[in-house]
Every structure is written in C-alpha cells, then in structure tokens.
Specification:
By secondary structure, the chain is of the alpha+beta class. It is 29% helix and 40% strand.
C-alpha cells in the first residue's frame, strides 16, 4: 500500500504577537527515530518544544508545558490534514511577552506545522513484500509474463528436478491480485511460499 511521506526534512517560521514559532519536520520510520529527531532539533533555550508524529496507526504528541491540547494535537492534526505518514514535526516557540490564549495557541502551533508541511517535498512510499512462487516447468511462461502487470520484480530463480521457484518482491497491495491471476493462469499449480516484508 502506498503512503505519502516527506521526501526530505523541511522547516517554516511564523511570528504571532511577538512570539516566534519554528516548525521542523522530517520523514521517520520508527517511534525511536521520531524521538531522536525531537531531541536533536529541540532548543533548550526556547520556551516550548512541542511535537507530534504519525507512523501508520501509531502516533504521539506533546504540549511540552503549553495548556493541554493546544500544541501537540494541532501539530498532529496538521500531519493528518496533509495526508502524511511516517512524519514527525517539532514546533519550537520563543515567548514574546503576550499571552495568546488557548485558541491563539492552537492556531499558531497548527498553522506553523501546516505551513511547514504544505511547502515540504513529498513522495509516495510503497510497502513491498517478498515472496517465493513455486510452479511446474510448464507454467514458467505464464508466471514470468504475469509479473510486470503487477509491478513485481524478480530477485532470483531456482530450478529443481521437478519444478522451479522464483523469488520476487511486489507492492503489498498487488500480492493478492497476482496470487489470484496465477491461480487461474496455471490451474492452481503455482503456489506462494515465504511471504515477508521487504525493503
């Protein structure tokens, strides 16, 4: 399944009533990588370093001392609003002496994060799986011919005395369709073994 993520780190700045906000965003694959990014870009001299990340169904956010729900959740909403996955955003605030109120904070944190993500370069991240297809020699042509239509790539081929096997990688969303196609094309002689995630 394809998901949209950042192609590279990005940043944006915003000033609201003398408070300065800087958003920094990056693509990440794991919660540990997200927290490392937070630690790396947070400014200990700033008033607040608020953040959020989304990795599939997993997400976390922090208000870092701002009133509850006024910073981390709006940052997460900006990530979700842009349809992004595998992304962390840190918004750092330097207080300018004027209280913004809860609504002002939500708009400032969410707006700064959204501005950063709006300008950021994105890419489609495809999740791949690897599989082994075992088939009779008579079905070699049918198996090989089917692969390009489903975006599958050959990784290696093995020949036994009675049959052959082919290692492939394929976009996860195409695997079921390829299985159904080969079941029909080979009269159920082709079988799939050892399906697992692949980079």
């Amino acid at each position: 399944m394809a998901r949209r993520t950042l192609a590279a780190p990005a940043h944006a700045a915003l000033e609201v009533r003398h408070s300065r906000f800087i958003a920094q965003a990056a693509p990440i694959d794991t919660p540990a990588a997200a927290l490392r990014f937070v630690a790396t870009v947070s400014d200990p001299a700033a008033t607040h370093n608020c953040w959020a990340y989304r990795i599939g169904s997993e997400y976390r956010s922090s208000d870092d001392g701002e009133p509850g729900g006024t910073a981390g959740r709006p940052i997460l909403a900006a990530i979700d609003g842009h349809g992004l996955d595998g992304v962390v955003v840190v918004v750092t605030r330097w207080y300018g002496g004027i209280n913004l109120g809860a609504g002002g904070l939500v708009r400032a944190y969410g707006g700064c994060a959204a501005s950063c993500l709006r300008e950021a370069p994105t890419l489609e991240h495809v999740e791949w799986v690897a599989a082994r297809i075992r088939y009779a020699f008579v079905d070699t042509g049918a198996v090989h011919a089917a692969l390009p239509a489903f975006g599958a790539e050959r990784l290696g081929e093995h020949y036994g005395t009675e049959d052959a096997s082919l290692d492939i990688r394929i976009p996860a969303g195409e695997l079921a369709a390829l299985k159904a196609h080969l079941r029909d094309a080979t009269r159920n002689r082709a079988c799939f073994e050892e399906t697992f995630p692949h980079a």
